[in-house]
Design goal:
Layout (H helix, E strand, L loop, with lengths): L1 E2 L14 H32 L1 H8 L2 H26 L14 H26 L2 E3 L7 H34 L1 H14 L10 H21 L3 H17 L16 E3 L3 H4 L9 H21 L6 E2 L2
Antiparallel strand pairs: 1-4, 2-3
Helix pairs in contact: 1-2, 1-3, 1-5, 3-5, 4-8, 4-10, 5-6, 5-8, 6-7, 7-8, 7-10
């Protein structure tokens, strides 16, 4: 059976009081986190007991990829368990259908990479970007880094969009689901919750809005995954810039940021600056206004 995402808004909450819906969503999200941690903690417990082990292990790109694969699989298992056995809904509700998977991943990656390219281009014209040594990562190291990035973004999006946003949408409608999922996206970067990273957090919220809109418009988890992956992979493993304050790929040294951190993002990477804010705003407007008019993708999602 086909139906648009927006037509499903409030599907399981029709007539339910607001407090009841809030409670229904809240305890499910908490249970999701509990299930994920119960699966995840046994694997990371040695890192807490022996902190040096984590540093040594994650120095290897291959090990980082395997670590992110594990986390991504556990996010997926948690989402499947919640959807099937708690919510009593079909697994197709996670929007993981392979239909147009490759097309959505490719389109999403192009959108994410194009947004970052636009930001970097403006910064370059502004004189805030310098060319580095262009050492680049080795082919093997780059492939492992790209895999790690894919598994990382998949895990985040299956939790945020595939489960949380769909749950919120059924109870409160698409608009609120997009906003709340964006807030959760910011909270997932809790280590950055400080005054000096305010602009970065604001941009993360905006990016969450953009990806949330793309999810509602496409009805597919693969478009958000592609957008997230395309942006992060170009920014980190390819250009050698920090990604949300994490700088694991500096040896690529293709570009270097200089100038005011408020403009460039400084140590947080381009996504922490005002130029990124402008591009994120334009992207949100584009997805809300231009996409439906030009029908870039079929905006119906299939649910059974």
């Amino acid at each position: 059976m086909k139906e648009t995402l927006s037509s499903q808004a409030g599907g399981e909450s029709s007539g339910a009081p607001l407090t009841s819906r809030i409670f229904r969503v809240a305890w499910r999200l908490v249970l999701f986190v509990v299930i994920f941690l119960a699966l995840y903690i046994p694997f990371i417990l040695p890192f807490f007991l022996y902190p040096d082990t984590e540093y040594q292990l994650l120095q290897s790109s291959a090990n980082r990829a395997l670590f992110e694969l594990l986390a991504g699989l556990l996010f997926l298992l948690s989402a499947m368990a919640m959807t099937r056995y708690v919510d009593r809904r079909p697994l197709s509700d996670l929007c993981l259908r392979p239909t147009r998977m490759a097309a959505h991943l490719l389109l999403g990656s192009l959108i994410g990479a194009a947004l970052l390219t636009g930001i970097v281009t403006v910064l370059f014209l502004y004189g805030a970007v310098r060319i580095g040594s262009c050492a680049g990562l080795g082919v093997e190291q780059f492939l492992w880094a790209a895999l790690a990035m894919f598994f990382n973004t998949f895990g985040q999006e299956i939790m945020l969009r595939g489960y949380a946003q769909r749950l919120l949408q059924r109870n409160f409608g698409p608009a609120i689901s997009i906003i709340v999922a964006a807030v959760i996206f910011v909270l997932m970067h809790w280590t950055l919750l400080k005054l000096e990273s305010f602009l970065l957090l604001l941009n993360l919220f905006g990016a969450g809005i953009v990806i949330g809109i793309a999810f509602v418009r496409s009805g597919s988890i693969w478009l958000p995954v592609g957008m997230h992956f395309g942006w992060n992979t170009l920014q980190g493993p390819i250009l050698g810039l920090p990604v949300t304050g994490i700088n694991l790929w500096s040896q690529a040294d293709v570009l270097r940021l200089s100038g005011s951190p408020a403009v460039t993002g400084g140590s947080f990477g381009p996504e922490g600056g005002m130029v990124a804010s402008m591009f994120i705003f334009v992207a949100a407007w584009f997805l809300m206004r231009v996409w439906p008019a030009h029908r870039l993708l079929e905006t119906q999602a299939e649910f059974s």
